[in-house]
Amino acid sequence: MAARRPTQIVETPTEARQGEPGSSVLAILAISTGLALLVLGLVWFVFFRT
């Protein structure tokens, strides 16, 4: 029975990360941060306004 030799897989850094470069990640981060600020502002306005 022949011994199997391991094969080396060569990938670019982007392929290794499995990441999606682009502005979609930035858009999701900006929208979610804006919504979180809006919700916190509403909570403050309703409960902590004097």
Please compute the radius of gyration using only Cα atoms.
24 Å
- Shape verdict: rod-shaped
**Average pLDDT metric:** 84
Q: Look at the helices and sheets and give the structural class.
A: mainly alpha
Along the chain, the helix and strand elements come as: HH
Strand proportion, as a percent range, falls in: under 5%
Q: Outline the low-pLDDT stretches.
A: none
Distance between the termini: 82 Å
Count of DSSP E strands?
0
How much helicity do the residues have?
55-70%
Per DSSP, the total helix count is: 2
Major beta-sheet overview? none
Quick take:
It is built from two helices and no strands.
Characterise the protein shown here.
It is a single chain. With 50 residues, the chain is an all-alpha fold. 60% of the residues lie in helices and 0% in strands. It contains two helices and no strands. The chain has helices at residues 13-17, 23-47. It starts with 12 loop residues before the first helix and ends with a helix.
